[in-house]
């Protein structure tokens, strides 16, 4: 696997991750550990919720999107540092048995004046279900090393 540096990247680059099926136990385990609301941890109680059944936590979906992005190794062996997320939104509930995947597009590549050895990449990250519907959206901001520092 090769390294990809800031100079190797171009806006408009896209990739699609593998698809993952969300299981009922996955939803419950994540919910119990990190978001213990009834509609994430108890299928019977979830029936009385506004969702009418068990759904995955939005934080579960964000964590899963991160995992799929890391596994895809878009930057190869290059160490990339996450520096933030903008505009995270959850659009549709994800239920047991749903299948999701990430579609990611580089939308902005920036020099960072006070960091001559690194630049910033902004990527649109959409988590979509088996029907192609967007269930989560965010912009991931990453610090990516340069092949040659700007100062020499």
Automatic annotation (TrEMBL):
A Pfam cross-reference name? MaoC_dehydratas
Q: Which Gene3D superfamilies match?
A: Hotdog Thioesterase
InterPro entries registered for this protein in UniProt? HotDog_dom_sf (IPR029069), MaoC-like_dom (IPR002539), MCH/BMMD (IPR052342)
Question: Which residue range or ranges hold the MaoC-like domain?
Answer: 17-111
**What PANTHER family does the entry give?**
BETA-METHYLMALYL-COA DEHYDRATASE, MONOAMINE OXIDASE-RELATED
Q: What is this protein called?
A: MaoC family dehydratase
Q: Which organism is it from?
A: Paraburkholderia pallida
């Amino acid at each position: 696997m090769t390294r990809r540096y800031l100079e190797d990247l171009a806006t408009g680059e896209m990739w699609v991750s593998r698809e993952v099926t969300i299981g009922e136990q996955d939803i419950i385990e994540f919910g119990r550990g990190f978001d213990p609301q009834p509609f994430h941890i108890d299928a019977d109680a979830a029936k009385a919720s506004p969702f009418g059944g068990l759904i995955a936590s939005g934080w579960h979906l964000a964590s899963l999107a991160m995992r799929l992005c890391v596994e895809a190794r878009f930057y190869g062996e290059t160490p990339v540092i996450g520096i933030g997320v903008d505009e995270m939104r959850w659009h549709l509930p994800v239920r047991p048995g749903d299948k999701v995947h990430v579609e990611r597009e580089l939308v902005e590549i920036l020099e960072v004046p006070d960091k001559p050895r690194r630049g910033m990449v902004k990527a649109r990250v959409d988590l979509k279900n088996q029907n192609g519907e967007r269930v989560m959206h965010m912009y991931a901001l990453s610090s990516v090393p340069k092949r040659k520092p700007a100062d020499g």
